[in-house]
Design goal:
The complex is a heterodimer of chains A (230) and B (161). Chain A is mainly α. Chain A is built from ten helices and no strands. Chain A folds into two domains: 69 residues; 155 residues, no CATH class. Chain B has 161 residues and is of the alpha+beta class. In chain B, strands 3, 4, 7, 8, 9 and 10 form a six-stranded antiparallel sheet that branches. Classes of the chains: A mainly alpha (230), B alpha+beta (161). At the A-B interface, helix 1 and helix 2 of A face helix 1 of B.
């Protein structure tokens, strides 16, 4: 085998890898869109059929991690860089929280018990953190990692992750903007310190602060997809 | 392509096929649930109303809710529960109580089009859909407000008086 043909094979393998990674992203996005737009419109949001695209998406993610030899630690289920990730998150979170608290104070919309109609203040963030962990795993542990295969680490892959995260919350305008901004922050932090626990904590807390400070009507009850218009 | 990439490729193909079949099944199921093919009916313009009959073949004893649209605008709604012995004697219904009659006034002189739809509720009340009964009814209104049916139906239609 000549040196040129080896180079060609490496280039070819890289190209196949990129194409597969892009396809993986598209496939997961399609599953989300089916769940948000098709199933909710056809049978309603609480129908068990909603599990079908979600199970398919998670099956793909798990099998893909296995085939690509990614460990839980690679994905960000680790504690050694928790402090580093929190350090990167803390300043933007404090700034955004302060802005939201000021808005809430002056608009008279501060209510820390608003989430889920007065659910316990202790149960609320815990639920948010678990939900956040699930979303951050799919968004960063899968989509961000695949985006880095396609476009490499940096601005483009971060922007793709943020745009997709925002798009999952369409057509809710406030939530789309908030998740796009959150997506930018979390994707950036993940590329520097991949820790899903820190991101989940941040996701849960920021969701709670967002709900507690902005007027309820602005967030439309966090409804997204067909549920927003249906 | 090495084995790992080939496996991933197959998984992606498999998922795509599974989702396509799933969405197609949902779409077909949705169509038959929202627009079931068992509503039958007929409508015509009488001198002062739009009248006809509507039957749900799946529930032949049920009275069908109907809506009238004239020139594309909602005009009236009601339940097809008037006596139409000709409909049951022609074998279109199990009993005679499937007629409707919408008295329409204040239409301008000239030609108009009426559409009568069967209202169907599905998805546990999640949605209501309309299905056209028979064909669009073209009719004219004269100076005295009397209607003339303009539809050329050819052979006499079963169920007509």
């Amino acid at each position: 085998m000549t040196r040129d043909s080896t180079h060609f094979e490496m280039d070819n393998d890289e190209q196949i890898d990129r194409s597969l990674a892009l396809w993986e992203i598209v496939s997961v996005v399609i599953s989300c869109l089916i769940a948000e737009w098709v199933i909710t419109a056809v049978v309603g949001e609480s129908h068990p059929l909603i599990a079908v695209p979600i199970v398919l998406a998670f099956a793909l993610m798990f099998l893909s991690h296995r085939l690509r030899g990614e460990s839980l630690r690679d994905l960000g289920f680790r504690l050694d860089n928790f402090g580093q990730a929190v350090g990167l998150l803390i300043v933007p979170m404090v700034i955004v929280s302060a802005i939201l608290l000021v808005i809430g104070y002056f608009r008279g919309s501060l209510d820390f018990f608003r989430w889920r109609g007065g659910q316990s203040i202790l149960g609320m963030p815990l639920l948010g953190i678990l939900w956040g962990l699930l979303q951050q795993y799919a968004l960063q542990g899968f989509i961000n990692r695949r985006a880095q295969i396609v476009w490499g680490p940096g601005v483009v892959s971060i922007l793709v992750v943020a745009l997709l995260f925002g798009a999952f919350h369409l057509p809710n305008p406030a939530l789309t903007l908030a998740t796009f901004a959150g997506g930018l922050l979390w994707a950036t932090v993940y590329q520097r310190a991949p820790n899903l626990f820190a991101l989940a904590l941040s996701h849960g807390l920021m969701t709670w602060i967002l709900i507690s400070t902005l007027p309820g009507g602005l967030l439309h009850g966090l409804r997204v997809g067909y549920k927003f218009i249906g | 392509m090495d084995t790992t990439r080939l496996k991933l490729f197959r998984i992606l193909i498999g998922k795509s096929i599974a989702e396509t079949l799933f969405v197609a099944t949902l779409a077909v199921g949705f169509f038959f649930s929202a627009f079931p093919p068992y509503f039958h009916g007929f409508g015509e313009a009488t001198p002062d109303s739009i009248a006809g009959w509507a039957v749900n073949n799946r529930a032949p004893w049920e009275r069908v809710e109907v809506q009238l649209f004239i020139d594309g605008r909602f005009a009236a709604s009601g339940v097809a529960n008037l006596s139409r012995p000709d409909v049951s004697s022609a074998g279109w219904a199990r009993d005679e109580w499937h007629g409707y009659n919408f008295s329409v006034s204040s239409l301008s002189v000239g030609t108009h089009e009426a559409n009568v739809y069967a209202v169907h509720e599905s998805g546990g009340g999640l949605r209501r859909t309309l299905q056209l009964l028979g064909y669009p009814i073209r009719f004219s209104v004269d100076q005295n407000g009397k209607f003339t049916d303009l539809v050329d139906r050819g052979q006499p239609t079963p169920g007509l008086k």
